[in-house]
Every structure is written in C-alpha cells, then in structure tokens.
C-alpha cells in the first residue's frame, strides 16, 4: 500500500510566516454517563494569516467543538483534548490544555495542583487575547439586565486596561505636557519642575522618584541629567506609570487598606474614572467601526431594545476590541433576515480587508460560504472530508459527502420540488467506525473505506476518499 500523506505536506508548501494557526492530529473527547464521546478525531488543518477559512458541515459534525477547543471553552471536567497539538503563531498551546484537564479530572486535587491549574488558566487567558469568538445567538451572550454601555466597558476594562492607559497618555495634550516639562526643567529649575509634576500627576506617582533625585547630594547639573533620563524612560508612555497604575487598580480591587496610603487610593479612584471615560469613548469608536447607527444611543440601550442585526454588531465590536489575530464567528448570520445577513457578511469581509483580520467562519449554509470564505473545510462526524479553495469546492466537489451537501442545498434555478436527502444515518460517536465515517451512507464505499481512512493531496486540495488514489499519483 502506498504511503498516505497528510496536511503537513501542504503546510511545507506555504511560507511559515503565512501560517497563523496550525492544528495537528487534534482529538477531543467528552466523558459522559453514556460513555466517551469521540467528538473530534484526528483533524489536521492550518489557517493562513489574513484569510477567511470557512468550516461547513451538518449539525453535530464537530464545527463548533473545534472552535471552542481553540479558545479553551470546552466544558470543564467533561471535554478535553486527548491527543494532538494546536500552534498559534508557532507557539504550542494545546499542551497547556492537556495539563489543565489532567489536573481537573483527578478525584483528589492537591493545593499545588490547584495553583498549577490557576497558572495555566492565566496563560490561556493571555492566548485568548489573540483569539476572539462571536457566538450564534447574541441575545444569550449579552446580559438582558445591563445596558450595552455597561457590558462593553466592563469587557474593555478587564481585557484592555493597558491599552486604555496607552491611549490616554498618547493624546496630544499629554505629549505637550511632557514637552513643556523638559522646557520647564531647563529654564526654571528643579523646584518649579517638581511642583508642576505634582499638579499633573497628583500627590503620588512619578514625582516621588523626582523628589528623591532633588533631595540627593549630587550637583545641579547631574540632577537635571537624571531627571531628563527619567522622562525619556517614559518614552511616550512610561512603563513605570503603567505598572504603578495597574498595581494600584489591583490593590483597590483586592480592597487592601493601608492608612498611610490614603492619598494613593484617592489618586487611584481618579485614575479609574479616567479609564472608564476612555473605555466609553473606545466603545463608541468600536460601534462606529462596525457601522452601528447612532452608537451613542445604542450605548444607553438594553439588549432587548436592539434588533438582531444590531445585537450581532455589538458582539462583533466586542470581538475586535482586543485587536485579536483571529476572530472565530460561529454561525453569526443564523436567524437573521437575508438583508441583515448580507450586511453582517459584508461587515466581516470589510474588517478582514481593513484590519487584516484572520477569520474562521462556521456555518452550515454553503451559500454564505460562497460570499465570504477564501477556503472551505468540510467536516462530517468529527473528521475532515475535504479542504480546498472555495471556488473549487463549490464547483468541483471531490468527496461524496460534499457533493451530497451541495445537492441538498435549495436553489431558485432548481425546479425539482423535493430536495435531495443523503440516505442513511450519522455514525454513533460513542463507537465510531475505524475507516471513513461516511462509508455507511456512500454509494461508492468499499471494504477498504470501512477499515482504512485515506488522506490525499490533489493540486492544493485535501480529500479523504479512496476514489482519488490514482489522481494523487497523477498530480
């Protein structure tokens, strides 16, 4: 028998710089009372930077489970990665998941293991900053008891605090103040400079370091030199200030009270109000980015007061707030009318082109795929049937399951009254077949199909079907 190839052959044909996400032999199982459900079984694929990869398949094929696995949203203690690797920008992130779930699945968890689990969760939280996800039903993702403003600000404050500080300190008036400080130091001396620092930054902050320099026994020229160096250390944005602000906010959140630091907490409250104001401005900018009409009014609205399309735009705005490398859209056009569907698809494609955003788009609608996807990945019963460019998948499908999907899609030009239905039943994932999952429903299936699953690469496409063994040799 000839040696079968996998997606690694295709990855080597692509520049490593073009690959942002790579999934290798991923297996995901769910542990239930009925037994071990093998939801994802040995899938391999990659995503190129800046492309829109569509994942299509019928309900239960494993599309959403694949997406949830990428962002570590599998049910804790029930679903886990049993085998395989996920690489994001060349960094292996699946090892983290496996370690965490090994800890969670034990009956007795020691304190040290709990600490390890928390550490792993923090690492995964950092990875989630690179991958965002918008879900199928925005109403279930938005809290009906809070206004859009409160929910957007809360999310931005939690995930983008350093970015907000950077936005504040990069404003023109702040930059002008720093320039004025250097001039003030040169012309009016250190004492006036210290007073100006106190007025700008409050009773705590950078001026403490300044006062230490001022009270030192070194000469006047050396003092000025050190102060200028300290100012330049701010760059446009002082890392010392950022860390200080973050520490103050963390201390406030933990409610650590120190009597000798009472002024510090008043300063922290002022900073927090400034951050909230900046988060509100950033929220409005995000809503404008997703073409939301009257964003200021939407901010003051409750979710139930918005239409389906407007709620989905809010979710997209939250999805891109962290400036992720990858945005996963899990059937975002479901339950929307045709016009709103087109608007959401156009918006996502615009964000893809304008921001260079990589999108993984999940749907069961092949018509939607034709409008947005650069490549299509077809899934069936937890395995990949076929991968290839959209135009070839839709015009020249190779796998029998892909052909069946296309034939079962309704069409205006088709005068046939009854829609085509693929015969047979989906295999039970508690005890899935060893070979091709579609073999029991395929009219071309042979005994080899039922026992030995193939993978062939044909002119830049991947198809898991023995029908194309000869064609691979020819290509």
Describe the structure.
With 475 residues, the chain is α/β, with parallel strands linked by helices. It has a domain at 7-130 and 325-474: Rossmann fold (3-Layer(aba) Sandwich). The chain is 50% helix and 16% strand. The protein contains 20 helices and 12 strands. The strands form 2 sheets. It has an 8-stranded mixed β-sheet with strand order 6-7-8-3-9-10-12-11, with helices on both faces. It has a 4-stranded antiparallel β-sheet with strand order 2-1-4-5, with helices on both faces. Strand 9 and strand 10 form a beta hairpin. Helix 11 packs across helix 12 and helix 12 (262-289) crosses helix 14 (308-320). The chain starts with 6 loop residues before the first helix and ends with a helix. Residues 1-5, 99-119, 233-238 and 252-268 have low confidence and may be disordered.
Average per-residue pLDDT, rounded, comes to 76
The largest sheet, given as strand count, sense and whether it forms a barrel, is: 8 strands, mixed
Distance between the termini: 18 Å
User: Which second-level CATH architecture of the domain at 7-130 and 325-474 applies?
Assistant: 3-Layer(aba) Sandwich
**Please, what is the CATH homologous superfamily of the domain at 7-130 and 325-474?**
P-loop containing nucleotide triphosphate hydrolases
**What is the count of helical runs?**
20
Low-confidence stretches: 1-5, 99-119, 233-238, 252-268
The assigned structural class equals alpha/beta
Large-scale geometry? globular
**What is the strand content?**
15-25%
What gyration radius follows from the Cα positions, in whole Å? Answer: 28 Å
Number of strands: 12
Helical content band: 40-55%
In the CATH hierarchy, what is the class of the domain at 7-130 and 325-474?
Alpha Beta
Any idea of the CATH topology of the domain at 7-130 and 325-474? Rossmann fold
* Strands side by side in the biggest sheet: 6-7-8-3-9-10-12-11
